[in-house]
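FORM 12-B: Structure-to-Sequence Request
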């Protein structure tokens, strides 16, 4: 019987974060949480739309015919199936989106933007844009924006599992 632990390689290769690595990671985490929290608060205070609502409305607004299969919307948003289902139900109750049964596949669902959803999105967009600019973009000079975009794209290119969060 082997006494080799499956965690041995994790312990053997564990390398603590260097000071600059820890600073970069912790600053990113704090910035993300505070930025999204503040953006959500201001968006909801002024428009009655939460940041997750806005993300759904924006994604559908940019889709062909303002319509996506549920799994496509979930993949685009990187939401788990249960989160998407519950959130879409709440938005459907407010008449911002509608569920449409796929005629070619009785199990599949389309999620569409309603006229009210289009109007709410159009009304919330200026607040969203202003807040993104004030809270985020105005703090960066053009070289920071380029470096940040390139860094994010590099990290995103190395991540796996795209599309596994929400299926059919």
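FORM 12-B RESPONSE
SEQUENCE OUT:
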């Amino acid at each position: 019987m082997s006494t080799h632990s499956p965690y041995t390689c994790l312990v053997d290769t564990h390398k603590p974060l260097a000071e600059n690595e820890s600073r970069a990671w912790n600053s990113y985490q704090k910035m993300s949480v505070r930025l999204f929290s503040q953006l959500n608060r201001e968006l909801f205070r002024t428009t009655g739309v939460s940041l997750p609502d806005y993300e759904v409305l924006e994604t559908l607004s940019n889709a062909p015919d303002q319509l996506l299969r549920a799994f496509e919307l979930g993949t685009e948003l990187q939401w788990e199936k249960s989160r998407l289902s519950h959130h879409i139900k709440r938005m459907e109750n407010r008449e911002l989106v509608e569920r449409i049964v796929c005629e070619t596949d009785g199990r599949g669902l389309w999620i569409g933007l309603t006229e009210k959803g289009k109007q709410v999105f159009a009304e919330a967009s200026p607040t969203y844009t202003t807040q993104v600019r004030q809270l985020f973009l105005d703090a960066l000079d053009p070289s920071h924006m380029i470096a940040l975009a390139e860094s994010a794209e590099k990290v995103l290119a190395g991540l796996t599992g795209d599309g596994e969060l929400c299926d059919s």
